[in-house]
Amino acid sequence: MSSEPEEEPVSVLQRFEKRLEGLVEGAFAKVFKGVVHPVEILNAMQREAEAHKAILAGGRTLVPNRYVIDLSPYDHSRLAPYAAALAQELAQSQAEFIGEQAWTVYGDVIVEIERGDGLDTGMFRVTAEVYTGGEVAPVQQPAYDAGPQYSPYDQQGGYPPPGGHGGGPRSVGLVSGDGRTYPLQMGSTVIGRGDQANLRLPDVGISRRHARLDYDGNQVVLTDLGSTNGTMVNGQRVSAVALNPGDMIQLGTTTLTFRVDG
């Protein structure tokens, strides 16, 4: 009997390590000694995909396709000569992993390796998002060196659409207490008071990049981006949650109501 099924869970990692050995032409152990190991990054990317999966209409499972890897300045400088090739190998291996799980992504899997000032050597940060081709400001999550820092949306890995049924994209938006309306576009919207936020709110209690809304045409998922004062939905502090019509979102002293039309 073939032993292949027993090897399946680690096959992607095994292939990735093989390609890495060829990538650095025999200098594999030396290059990665004392710095974050790329296999740890790939492991974290797989966990991020698992943590951010969402159920689409028709039962398909959507996972992020864009992964931004922030490395410590030391690790980044050591891996800089291999950064472009490493990003390509990470993207290929992540695409293989997603394919084996029979998950869905928008377009190609993208991996970007960046310098993360303030990160200690050996630490790294993985940001995962659904990227649909629009301009999306990169967002930051707490740094870690093993395992994801936030939980999946729920134990089942998904929520029903806001309207309770399938169908095409609906008109969704946020309404502030003074009646201002902020329509949401497909893809990701970063809320904050900084220049890089897509939706800027002049509230000193809000972080520069406070929270992110991901809209796939069926549901909107709100994710706190490690904000100083946290994000509340209906009075409860949240890390990531799918929104339902009428939900009250509080950031700083600002309250926004989630609305779905159609």
From TrEMBL:
Alphabetized Gene3D superfamilies for the sequence: 2.60.200.20, FhaA, phosphopeptide-binding domain (DUF3662)
InterPro entries: Cell_Proc_Reg/RNA_Proc (IPR050923), FHA_dom (IPR000253), FhaA_N (IPR022128), FhaA_N_sf (IPR042287), SMAD_FHA_dom_sf (IPR008984)
Keywords from the named record: Phosphoprotein
Extent of Low complexity compositional bias: 147-158
Descriptive protein name: DUF3662 and FHA domain-containing protein
Keyword Chaperone: no
SUPFAM superfamilies documented for this protein: SMAD/FHA domain
Top-level lineage group: Bacteria
All residue ranges annotated as the FHA domain in the record: 189-238
